[in-house]
Amino acid sequence: MEISKRAQKLEPSVTLAASAKANALKAAGKDVLSLTVGEPDFTTPKNIQQAAIRSIESGKASYYTPSAGIKELREAVADYIKTYYQLDYQANNVIITDGAKFALYLLFQAVLNPYDEVIIPVPYWVSYGEQVKLAEGVPVFISCAQEKEFKVTVEQLEEAKTDKTKLLILNSPSNPTGMIYSEAELRKIGEWAVANDILIVSDDIYGRLVYNGANFTPIATLSREIQKQTIIINGVSKSYAMTGWRIGYAVGDETIISAMNDIASQSTSNPTAVSQYAALEALTGEQDTVKIMRQAFEARLNEIYPLFAALPGFKLEKPHGAFYLFPNIKETLAMCGYTDVTKWVDDLLAEAQVALVTGAGFGAPENVRISYATDIDTLKEAVKRIRTFIETKSTK
Ligand SMILES: *Cc1c(COP(=O)(O)O)cnc(C)c1O
C-alpha cells in the first residue's frame, strides 16, 4: 500500500538518524566517537529516580492521569515559572506533554489552519519546519547570518510577514548555534509580534544552560502584552538530564492550552504517569544537580572551544548556551576538495570514525553541529582525528 503524501513529504530527524548510524557502527565493534547526540551525558539525578520508584511502588503510577497532566505537576510548572520568570500562571495555563517536542506538535495542530505561515529563523531546530508541515502550515524560513550571531532582526521579520503569518518561533539559547538573544533584541521582536498579532512560540528548553556569565531572558517577561502573545515551551529533558522520561510542557493562553489538551486526549491520553512523578520531583526538589551539570558543560565548553576553533578552516564564535558548537566549515570543505557538507560528514565517519551532524538538517549547508554533551577525552580525541582527516585530504 502507498503511504500517505504527508508521510512521504516528511524529512526524518537528521540528528536522530546521525546518532543511530554512529550507534550502529559502535555496536558492530567500530571505535566511533559520537558527537551527535542532543542530550546530556549525565544520568538522571538520584532524588528524581527515587521519586519515580516511589510512585511505582505506591501504585500512584499505575493509572491514567488527566490528559493535561497531574494537577500537582501543572501547579509545580506554574510555580517554577513564577520563580524563574516572575510571571503568574494558573494550572489551567499549563499542559504537560510527552516531551517539549510534543508540546510543539500539539501547539501547531491546535492553532494552524492550512496555508497559515510560521516564521522560522535559520539555523533552526530540525523539527520545527516538519511539524508545521504536519499541521498543514507553511514554514517561512529566514536566513540569519553567522556574522550577526545567527539572529533574526525586526527588518527581516517585517519583510517575511504576510497576511497569513500566524506564528514566530524563537529558540534562545539556540540549538544548534548556542547563541542567546539580548533583552533589547527580544523587546524589539516582542513588540513587533504584538503590533502584528503574531503568536510567539518561545522554545526555552536551554534556558538554564547558559555559560560564562551570560543571561537568559525569556521573551514573555518583557511586558504584559508580550506575555499574552507568547506560548512558553519548556521541559525537563535538558536541564535535569531526563531526555528518556519524555516530559515537557507548554504555558500560556488558556484557550490555546485547552485546545492542545483536546488533541492530546484523543492521541496520547496522557504523558506517562511515572515520568510525571519524576518531573514533579525535578521541579520541586533540590536544584543543586542542575547547577553541577551546568558547571560541567561550562568547563567543557571553555576547554574544547579553542581546540575546535583552531581546526583548519573552522569558523566559529564561542557560544553562550545549550551544548553545541556550530562552525561554518566552508573553507575546510574547499581544502579537502568537497562541495557538500553532508558528504564530508559521511566520509569523516567512515574514515576517521567521528560522527557529527550535517548542518543541512538545520538549514545551514556550510556548517556542522558538534555536541559537547560527552566526556572531555572523547572530545579531545575527536579534535585530533578531525585534524588528521582534514590534513590527509588536503595534501591529496
Ligand atoms: C531537545 C529539544 C527539544 C525537545 O526536547 P524534549 O526531549 O522533547 O523535551 C525542543 N527544542 C529544542 C531546541 C531541543 O533541542
From TrEMBL:
One of its GO terms (biological process) is amino acid metabolic process. It holds the Pfam family Aminotran_1_2. One of its GO terms (molecular function) is pyridoxal phosphate binding. Keywords: Aminotransferase, Pyridoxal phosphate, Transferase. Residues 30-386 form the Aminotransferase class I/classII large domain. Its EC number is 2.6.1.-. Belongs to the class-I pyridoxal-phosphate-dependent aminotransferase family. Coiled coil: none annotated. This is Aminotransferase. Its cofactor is pyridoxal 5'-phosphate. The keyword Transferase applies.
